[in-house]
Amino acid sequence: MDAGQTVYIASQLILGAAASFLAILLWPKTRDASWMLIIIGVIITYIETVYSILKVFGIGIDDSLHIGSVPVIPFILPTLRMMLFISAFVVMLYRQSRQK
How many domains is the chain built from? Predict the structure, then answer.
């Protein structure tokens, strides 16, 4: 592994950990559905980052579970993340449209 890849992996882990830590700190302070969905999405993003880094090192869960020819975990993590963010934005838009 070269220095560029090491810097990339370290930055992804450090920044993802900081974002997840701050999201977890914010979690008990908010009861807003849209913020809760964004917080869960950030945590899923960090799980996705850790999973992909473990795959680079050859450590981790075997991708033996497939839907057709697509491995389940690499398919579900990004999909779930985007669905959570979309849901959060829909909740925000719905709330904004009701206030007018």
Answer: 1
48-51's contacts with Cβ under 8 Å and 24+ in sequence apart are 48/77, 48/78, 48/81, 49/12, 49/13, 49/16, 50/13, 50/16, 51/77
CA 81 to chain CA mean position, Å: 5
pTM score over 0.70? yes
CB 42 within 8 A of CB 50: no
- pLDDT averaged over the chain? 91
Domain containing 24 equals 3-99
Asked if pLDDT for residue 39 goes beyond 90, the answer is yes
